[in-house]
Each structure stands twice: as C-alpha cells, then as structure tokens.
Design brief:
252 residues, homopentamer, 13% strand, alpha+beta
C-alpha cells in the first residue's frame, strides 16, 4: 500500500469514489459497510497474534464488485493463505460460487481470528482466577488491568463489525446472492457469540477486581489484628515492668 | 454423536443445510432458531445438575420438520425420559398433537431445568445472607464470587434462549400450528420470569458484596479503636512510669 | 384455592384454557395479561402489609369475560372489601359500568397498595437519612441493605405490572369498552409514577451507602490521627525518659 | 385551590373528565399530557426558589381548550407575572396568537425556572470543586450528598416533562396550531439541554465522590506513614536505651 | 456578533425565524439541526485549542439556504481559513459544488478539530498510564479527574452533534443534493468513531482509577506490615529489657 500512484490507478480503473480511496489509506477506520451501488465497500479490523504482549490489528478493506473482489491490507499477514490454498486445490465451494462468497470467506477468516484471541484471553482469565484464590499479588492487579484494556479494544471493533456484517446480511444489493445471505447470517451469529463472550469476560474481570480489593482489605484486617494483639499484650506488660522496676528501686 | 458417517447420512436423508450439520457438531453454539423453510433448526443449552460444584450444561439441537423431530444431544442425559414416559403411557396431549407440540415439550423440559438451577441458587443465596449477618468470613467472599460467576453463565445462555423461543412464537412458518403458538408463548413467559429472577439475584449479590465490604471496614475500625485506646492509656502511663522511676532514683 | 375439584369445574364451565388453570394454581407467576379471545387472563401481585418486617404479597388472578369477572387469590385479604362496599351501597359508577370497569376497580386497588408500601418506605428512608448524618452505626448498614432488597422485590413485580396494564390499555379486545380505556391509562400513569419513585429511592439508597462508607473511612482517619498524635508525643518522650534515667544513674 | 365547590363547578362548566379533576387536586402527579379531544390536560412541576436550602416545587395544571386556558397552581407563585405583564402592555405576540401560544408561554416560563435552578447548582458544584482540591472536609461529603439528591429530584420531573412536551409537539390535535408547533419544538430542545446538563452534573458529582474517597485514603496513608516512621525510629531506640540502661547499672 | 442592529437586519433580509435569531445569540445552545423549509439552521460547538489547560469551545451557527451560507461564530477563530484558502486557490471541488457542499466543508473542519482534541487526550492518557505503573502520586488522581471532566464535556456536545449531522444526512430537503448526502454520511461515520474513542477513553480512565485506588490500599498494606513487624520485634524486646533491667537491679 506504499505505491500511491498504482493505488490511484486502481481507483480510477474500478471507478471507486474518492471517499473510498481516502478510507482505505486512513488506517484508523471504524469497521463499516458502505453500499455504492456498483460495488460494496467494507472495512474491517483483523487481529492476528501479538507482539510484546500487545494485540496486533490490521485494517482490511474489501471492495465487492459484480465479478471481482479488491482487498487492501495495512500489513502483510497470513489472512488469505487458507483461501488461496482452497482455491488452488479447488477445494470446497469457493471456486463454484461468485465474488460474494469469496468476500464471505475473507470475513469468515477475520472473525475466526477473534475466536483465537478469545481463547487466548480465556486461558489468561482462568490462570488469573487460580492466582486470585491462592496468592493475589500487585501483579495480579496489573494483569486484570491489561486484560480489561484488551477487552475494551476488542469491543471497540466488535460492535461496528456486527453492524457491518448485519448490513451485508440484510442488504438488497444485487451484488449479494440470496443463497450467500445465509452464510453472512452464520458469520453474524458468530460475531454475536463473540460479543457475548467479551461481555461475559468483562463481567468476570469486574468481579475479580472486587474480590482482589476485598482480599486486600481482609489482609489489612489480619495485619492490624496482629499489631493490636501484640500491643494489647506488651504495652500493659511493659508498663507494669516499668512500674515494678520503679517500685523495686525504692528499697535501694 | 461420535459416528460422523451416520450423522452425515442423516443430514443427507433429511436434506439439512451444511451449516446446520456444522452447528450441531460444534458444541459451543449460542442458543438460536433458524428457519430453513422445510424445517426449523433450534439449538439450546440444557443445564442438568452439577459436578464438583460446577454447573453442567449440554448442547441440544432440535430439527422440527413437517412430520418429524430430530434431536441431537452433546451427552446422554435424562432430558427425554419424561416425554418418552408420557408417550408410551399415552398420557396428556403429546400423541394427539403434531411435531411442533413435541418440540414444545422438549423445550419446556429444558426451561424447567433452569428453574431447578435457580431454586438451588436461591437456597445458597439465603444461606449466604444468614452468614453475612452472623459471621462474615473470607469464604463468604468466595461464595459470592462463585455465585456471581454462575449467574453470569446462566445469563449468557438465557438472553439468546429468549430470542430463540420468541422467534418460534412469532414464526409464521407452516410448521408451527396456530394452537401450538400459545404453548410457545407460555414457555416464553417462563423464560422472562427466569431472567427476572437471575437479574434480581445479581442485584442481591451486588448488595451483599457492598455489605461485606462495609462490614470489613467496620471491623477494621473496631480493631483500630481497641489499638488506639490501649495506646492512649499505656503510652502516657509507661512514659510517666519511666519519668517517675527516673525521678525516684534521684534521692538514691 | 384448596378445592381442586371445584376449581377444575369452574375452569370447564367458563371454558378456560388448561394453561390458565395451571397459571392460577402456580403462585409464582410474573404479572401479565393474556388475551384468549373469549376472555382476558390477568395475573398480578398484591402487596398487603408486612409480617415480621417482611413485605407480604399475594398472587391475584383475574379473568375478564363478556359479562363476568372471575378472581382467584392466593390468600384471603381485604382487597375486595372497598369494592363490595361500593357495590352494596350502589356508590360511584361501579354498578353502572360493565365487567371491564370492575376489573379496573380491582387493579386500581392493587396499585393503590403499592403507594402504601412506598409511603412506608419513604418514612424509613427519611429516618435513615437523619441517622446517617447524626450517628451512623452498623445497624444503619443493615437497614440500607433491607430497604434495598425490598426495592429489588418491588421492581421485580412493577415492570411486568406496567406491561400487563399497558397491554389492557392498548387492547383492541371487544371485552374492553372504549370509555374504560381511559381508566386503564390512569392506572398506567400511576404505575409509571410508582416505578419512578422506586428508581429514585434506589438512587437515594445508593447515595446513602456511599456516604456511609465515606463516613466509615473518615472515622478511621480520625482514630488513626489520635493514635499517631499520641505515638508522636509519647514515643520520643518515653525514649528520652529512658535515656535520661540511664544517664541519671551514672552518678550513682 | 381550597374551594372544592367552586372547583367542581368549573369542572362541570368546562365539561372536564372526573379523572382530570382528581389529577388536579392530587398534587403528587407525574408531569404528563393527556388529550381528551375537546381539551388537552397538562400537568407540570414548577421549581421556584428554595426554602431552608431545599428546592421548592409546585404542581401546575393547564387545560388547553378551543378558546380558553385554565390553569391551577398548588401555591401562589410569580409564575404568571411576566405573562400578565406582557398581556397588559400588549407586548410580543402573546395577544395576537391563540390559546395554544398562551399555553406555550406558561410552559416556557416553567422550563426557564429549571435553568435558574441549574445555574444555582452549577455555582455550588464549582465551589465544591475548588474545595475538593484545596481542603476536603467531611462537610464536602455532605454537600456532594445534598447536590446528588437535588439532581435525583430534578431528573424525576424532567424525563416525564420531556415526554409531555414531546406529546404536545407531535400532537395532531386541532387545538394546536401548526405555527405554534415550532415553539413547542423550541421548548423541547431546551428541556433536552437541561437533561444533558443534569446528567453531566451527575457524572461530575460521581467523579468528585471518587476523588474525595481517594483523597481520604491518601490522607490515611500519610498519617500511617508518619506513625510508622516514628515507631521505626523510636521503638528500636527505646529498646536500646532500655538495654543500655540495664547494662550501665551492672557496674554499680 | 456585537452589532445587534446589523444582526437583526440580516435576519430580516434572509427571512429568518425569530427563534433562529434568538438561538444564534444565545451561545449556550445544544448542537442541533432545524429545517425551516427555505433554509436549514445548524448550531455546533467548535473546539479550538486550550487556554490555561482548559478546552476552549465556540458556538458556530450555520444557515444553509438555496444559494447561500450564513455563518455566525461566538469568537474569531481560524475555522474558515482552510476553506477560504481552498476557495481562493480554486482547489478541490469546493467552488464547483453548491452551498450544501460548502456547509459540509465547514462541519468537516469542526469535526476534524475533535480529532485533534482526542489525539491530545490520548497522549495524556498514555503518559498517565506510564505514571500509574511507575509512580502513582496524588497528582495522578488530579489528572484522572481533569481528563474525566474533559471527556464529560466532549460527550455532552458529541451526542447531539451526531443527531444533528444524522438529520442532515437523512434530510429530504431540496437544499441538500443527493450527491452531497454521501459526504454527510462520511462526517457521520467520523463522529461515530470519535464517540467510540471517547467512550473507550472513559472506560480506560475508570479502569485507571480502580488501579490507582488498589495501589493506594496495597501501599497502605505495605506500610502497615512494616509497622507491625517493627512492633512485633521491639515491643517484646523492650518488655524483656525492662524486666531484665528490673531483675538485674535486685542484687544492687
């Protein structure tokens, strides 16, 4: 996506609206579906792995036309590998169906990547829950904070993704075949399931933060009880020792 | 559900869509109703008892056709026992009505299982409330945490269940008889009542967590007051004893 | 409601649907309105007084037919006294209007009982607020907790009550006269006002819990300051006394 | 509004529905608009000043007929002064337009009074914010609590007011002129702006409570650090002094 | 906007409604779009930079007529510079399109200013997050508080801005060209993205406040542990020293 000239030529060749070209280049887009009549413009976020513990996401733009698909990626990633593989080996329905089915396959891959992120998060949350019960340390708090942030980021791209796919499913564009509609419905169901899980994780993390805070104040209580018991025993004793010593020195 | 070959044969025999077969096998589905014209595909979560204190749930798939019902379960459970019993003894309306009434009977059983889970939870919450007033311990906190998690899990399957049954009730499919509609409405009312109860339990648990936290800080206050009273009495006394002893030794 | 035989006979006589009979007997219903064509089935919760400090509620079922009203109560209560009184004394419009107006009169009485509960709660909340400012004790916390629970219970029956009455108001059933519609609208307005008040009470109790918690930590601060001041004064003094006493004994 | 006889005569003269008369006398109404065909009944809350620091509110009922306006107030207040003034001086459009414009003028005055209340609250919140940074005392907490309560009260009357005015604006009653509609739209916009501000104030107060609580625990931390430092210095020293004194007395 | 006479003349010349003139002068308006048939009245908030750390905002009123645009600003700002520049240099489409496109260009500039504010906030939040992990001080708390307030202010103008632009986009007014509609849709998408980001920032700040509070109580725990350890060691030792010294003085 470095070669602006080539990019503009493509835009002209396929008759893309200047706003579409702008949106493709601006990699900070909110996922959405725009129907321009001759083609449908889709922009999505693809989460692919991590780097230094942070989630990596790329912007993927898809233009679905009558007989073609254009797709633009922020960075090179393995997103299309499985699709190319299926096409070259002529597996599945991907070469029998139209451009809309191909678009579906790409979006399906992107949505599947969310599941991978979620599984990874689930593992971390379970690990955290064990930690919480056995030995809560300040680092537990950091982990809760980091996981919460990741969920906030995921949510930010999931809700518009849901809208974008719903727009495709309910679309009456001639570019989308009736029989493909059910596949978009299937993706839509997956996204709803992902959103449910993200919300569930958020609830669980909030619960865990409450538990962490309660554990902290329980621990403070314990510490203070020890201090109070020691003070209650030794302050009077020290006083008595002082008085006794004082009295004892009288006869001297 | 182990025998994939048999499963695929059934799919072919009844003309099921590949997406349906995929959904039946993938036991992580969100409850939903999909109308495929010739048949309606339903997927639900059945909660049946506990194991090691954790709620057990199974995925149940129902395919409602013109004159048949297919159902697939993740694991063997007693879900159909009462229905088989009624059918063999020719009790109730179950053999007089069509396939849609049979589907209703299965869903009704699944929803009744939620009531059993709720009664169990209610008992625990009442027990917890007694505990909270009499003797709140850190294990009270654990119980609140565990109950909260179970409610989160129940909610996650209840809201889509509500949608799925609502879709059946409002369906204009020829597969569902007008006179059966009222039975789906009845199940729908039960689900709403269950959701209300779950939300009420959540509110109650939140309130109990607040009380627990307040009790903890009240207790800290008590401990600190004891410490302060002892320090206020014995620190000056010890000092006086020290000074007196010091003075008393002058004449020596 | 003990005599099941009589009850079933009534059901048959008036041609009631088996689901209605089931709902009447199951006293755990969510308030709702079901239109069965020939009659409308209504189920409500009536709050009448307290026992051992707990709110008492009864399930009231009303069947509104062409020229008749059937009503079933969980327990004997004075709910119909004022209506019987008006009817026997031929006061008001109650004997001039149809069965729908009578149904309205019963529902109106039930809704009025909510106002009585609210007034009682308002008194307690005001009393609590005075307490909070003057002398907050752990029992203040208990009271907040109990009031919160009662509001949760009220809410649980108010929202479906609102729906049930709204369904009556917007009903196009021939059983409800146009001129009676405005009376149901009036009840609906009352329910909305009750819900508003309940929500306001919830907000106020939440605010009071925050204040209670802040007061608790303020008090802890005060206690700790006293402790610190005493320690700051007497620890150095005791040390000096110790050293001085030590030195003073040199010449001996 | 004391003279019930006169009141009932008015009701009969203008053909008012018994429910309207009841609502006018019951000064605990939720703001609303009821269209009775021949006339529109409006009930609102007018906030006019304070007494002993509490907001004063009155119920104002307006009946908008073909060529007349009836209005009933709970208490005498200056609400109509500016309108009477404009009418007597023949200023503005108030004498050229119909009864609906007059109704608009009254509602406009009532809504303007909310702005006055908000300005007063804004001042207090700004004053509070200064306090929070410079010197937070327990009285800061009381002020937050009182302001929160006032916002809860305002909200309780604002949301239904919004509905009531929206009903007027969207009304297709012949009593409301097309050209007056835009004035009701204007009032509606003002109410939305007031609600926005109230919500903003609520958010700000919540934020301030959080800050207050954090400041309190920061302060506790400071106090405890002083205590710990003193104890860390003087406890060992006192012990050493004790031991030294003990040893020093050996040679004696 | 000081010259009232000129202002009223303009109003008369362009046939503006008195309510529009009032709204332009009252610089406390909520963003909105009002369609008056012959012209559309728009009022927006323009955020341009900071003064003493506070966000500066101006009210901008736009009147979009058949062949003209009127715009009124609360204060002089560089809002129109880029547009004037484009027009004078005949760059872009701005001189080829109609008044609606010009209106779009102004709104686009205003929305772009929100992005600048957000970038500035993002920087501060990232800086804050670093601080939180490394060294949380009471000033961290102040910063969280200030950022929260700014987000509250932004939100207050963003939601109505969204409505206002959505009204333009969906408008069937003849003043807005079909081909311009897509540009308003583009602005609308930007506003939604801004709102998403603001909500995300709010969630992040809430999370950071929780972490701050937990860190504070962790720190208190640490301090109390030190105190308790010291007391546990030296209180018994001091007592023993006292007793020993007391005993040692016997033989003397």
């Amino acid at each position: 996506m470095q070669d602006i000239k080539l990019f503009e030529d493509i835009g002209e060749l396929f008759g893309l609206h200047p706003l579409v070209l702008e949106d493709i280049l601006n990699t900070d887009q909110r996922p959405k579906t725009d129907d321009y009549g001759d083609y449908i413009y889709l922009v999505l976020k693809n989460f692919h792995g991590r780097e230094n513990g942070n989630l990596l996401s790329d912007q993927v733009s898809i233009i679905l036309g009558k007989d073609f698909i254009l797709s633009f990626q922020e960075r090179e990633s393995g997103l299309f590998d499985s699709i190319k593989d299926k096409m070259s080996k002529n597996k599945g329905r991907i070469r029998k169906e139209g451009a809309d089915y191909l678009a579906h396959a790409i979006i399906d891959n992107i949505v599947d990547n969310y599941f991978i992120v979620l599984e990874n998060l689930e593992e971390k949350i379970e690990y955290l829950e064990d930690d919480l019960v056995k030995k809560a340390t300040p680092s537990t708090l950091d982990t809760i904070h980091i996981l919460k942030r990741e969920l906030i980021l995921l949510r930010k791209s999931l809700w518009p993704l849901r809208e974008a796919v719903s727009a495709l499913e309910r679309s009456d564009s001639s570019l989308i075949n009736k029989s493909t509609g059910i596949y978009f419905k299937d993706i839509y169901d997956h996204i709803i399931a992902i959103i449910d899980t993200v919300e569930t994780f958020r609830d669980m993390l909030s619960g865990m933060l409450d538990i962490y805070l309660s554990t902290t104040s329980n621990r403070l209580n314990e510490v203070m009880k020890v201090l109070t018991i020691i003070a209650t025993i030794f302050m009077p004793l020290t006083f008595i020792a002082g008085v006794y010593g004082m009295k004892m020195s009288y006869p001297i």
